[in-house]
Amino acid sequence: MGQGSVRPVDRKLLTFLLNKDGMERRHQTDGRRSGLALFNRATVPVVPNAVYRDLVSTLFTMTTPIIGFGILYALVGSLIYLKWHDAMISALVAMAVVVTAGRVLLIRGYHRSGGASQDIGQLAHWERRYAVLTYMFAILIATLNVRVLMAHEPLVHLATVSLVFTFGAGIVSRNASRPWLCATSLSLAVGPVAAAMLVHAASDYGEKLHAEFFALEALLLIVVGLMSMASARHLYASLVEHLTAKHDLAKLARFDSLTGLPNRLLLRESFHARLRSADAAGQLAIHYLDLDGFKAINDQYGHPVGDSMLVDVARRLASTIRAEDVAARLGGDEFLLIQADVKHPDQCELLARRVIRQLSEPYVIDGVAMRISVSIGIALSPDQGLDLERLMACADAALYRAKAKGKAQVQFCGPDDLHHVGRAVA
Length: 426
Fold this sequence. Notes:
Alpha-Beta Plaits, elongated, two-stranded antiparallel sheet, 15 helices, alpha+beta, five-stranded mixed sheet
């Protein structure tokens, strides 16, 4: 079929097409760069949904460090209990074991429920549960340290304060994708311990520079906590930038840069996905479309007008089909539709006739009214094969016959077309 030439789109148009949510998405992305992004809540993502899914999924990827830190807390607490026989220490150890088990079970439940493929509301729910358990563990760490600081036991204090630093390092490395979670967790773990150190510093133990060293330790703990928060914010910004670029490139590889419709790569993926989900009674219909009269308009009015018309054609196609169907641009003035769940060939003809009516309506570009039409060839799967390329070739052969009969015609792939395609493939 004829191939209408089109000029390359400029960078601004391409960027707009890549960003499905347009300027709203751009505004949200800018928002995450501000200082307020550190405290954004899980229920109101400020990034595109695809990036948000990736950010949340990072929370549920590392079970081993969680188990390891739970064991470390239990070992430290158990040693303190053996030394003091303090019932409160025993209770803290028991709660730490329960919370650790809860965190592990939560991660497993997240993956059993579909992981990042769940809808945004469900992901926010999993994220909140993860945050609550993380906050609980941070409070357990702070409580253990506060209890130890009630006595003057430097070696025991060294062991418990090490848990704070270890927890902070782990939070930044594992949860930098959610900086508000890092900030809250670090505040819960560091704040009470630093306050308890200052209270302990005011106690009189008769040791030289006792108060000064404990005050210095409290200051160091606060500074390290603030530095960890800053590191989490920096890592978050870098991660969002990387993930956004990754998803934009993936979208660029799957969508036509002029019309925003799926290209051949996404078309093939969509075809196989619908083929797998089709029920026994349903078929898939491949509609091969070629615009009638487009080349003459493109030659007469120039490529910018031709581009505008192709964008309008794509918009009309997208508004004509159902949500489960697919409209794609193959190149030039050729398009393809995948019609899902076809029970009878009449459904295919009804859709084709509706498409012809929609695309044959006048186009007003730069104040000039102009008309085109469209010819359509149709192939059915599985009756005429399961291979997309074979079905497209069969539909293209039917399209050739439709073009030969005049404008705005529909033809189904028949035995002669199949024979011709079979010989071409052989």
